[in-house]
Amino acid sequence: MKTLIRSACAIALLLPLTATAKVSADEAQRLKDGGDLTPLGAERAGNADGSIPEWGGGLMSSEAPEKYEGFNTRLYNPWPDDEPIDVITNDNLAEYKALLSPGQIALFKKFDDFEMPLYQTRRRNGAPQFVYDATFENATKATLEANGEALANAIIGVPFPIPGSGREVIWNHKTRFRGMSGSRWNVQAAVTSSGAYNLVKLYEDFKFNYSLKDATPDSLNNVLIYFLQEIREPARLAGQFLLVHETMDQVKEPRRAWLYNPGQRRLRRAPNVGYDNPGTGSDGLRTNDQLDSFNGAMDRYTWKLVGKKEMIIPYNSYELHSDEYEYDDILGRGHINQELTRYEKHRVWVVEAEVRDGTSHIYASRTFYVDEDTWTIVLQDIYDKRGQLWRVHEQHVLASYGVSKQFGEASGLPGTSAEVAYDLLNNRYLAFAMNNEEDEAQEAKFGDDHFTPSNVKRMARR
């Protein structure tokens, strides 16, 4: 009897974490035309003083600048005449502190010349209609299971457009629609305190299995994302491959990863590709789970949904993405060239993550700021085990436009011009996900067999 009581108590304690409440059909109607939410779950209305406007729908191809040459070509600024309404510096920082994170404020304190050009807010991110339709269906069906590590009964769209927990918000980030499959250059630079750096050029193929237009929960084979990365430069690292199958239910099956080392000429399973192990070519300035702000299993943290607030965040960063600039123009001593950045006021979801008892991570706690329109983690404050602010991570986002051969109108899909991870203690930073001197990301159709260990071996020996 005592054993049964203990078991029942254990099950009761787990229940809040093993399943989440689905919203009612009436509440889901808020996502439809005439409701107060956008089809992806953001507030349609602007704020009280008008500094955040009403959502304007996804940016369409008809609004692209004249020099835009079509899908798979460079994304140019659709609002080239925009000028900053103010530039935040140490001189006027006090006026804006309430709209900044502790990490952003620390960057101003760290660098006398740090600035944030503040522009009018433009809310033109969106997705194709089939993603909206899937999001509406997910709202009344999606659940989290296996202590929040497994997403069930959701596909294609945002799983939790009306979230009730921190885990749901982070799952929305991990599954947000960014297209279906393709390739991109990911150029990164670990910049020293003196401003010196060496470039590492990565070429990455990806397939968002969850986002395929004809996907169903049963068709995924428990794979959320396929990912294949090859180091192209520098020569001393060239030829290294990383293959990842990001699983949907990481309790049922943890992330599958393989690493090919050209020196050993062997492909091996790589269980250490995850959590707080150093990211490829990062010089220890970011963890594996820090790519795309956060990725992978969530079981080492507790996740608290603090709520929503107005903040100044990097947004519509087309200038930073421009091929008119070389990496030397972007990478400076202490921080990137802030004159090329763009910041706007938006509403964000705030999620606090604390290391769970019985687990470990070099980041003892992290605060994530998630854009309501795209579900992208655009900002992150990272603390060490002493509770000291250690790193600040910004994801500079932009809206994609054009017409995809895979899914039709791009409708303002979220994209990235650069991610920057600042180390406040070592006075260094890592800039990555850049492609200013390379080709734009390319849409490509890959079969599952492209992301197999046998194919990686063939590619490595070509």
UniProtKB/TrEMBL annotation:
Q: Which residues form the signal peptide?
A: 1-21
Record-linked InterPro entries: DUF1329
Q: Which CDD domains match?
A: LolA_like (cd16329)
Report keywords, A-Z: Signal
What stretches pass through the bilayer? Answer: none
- Identify the stretch(es) annotated as Disordered: 32-59
- Descriptive protein name: DUF1329 domain-containing protein
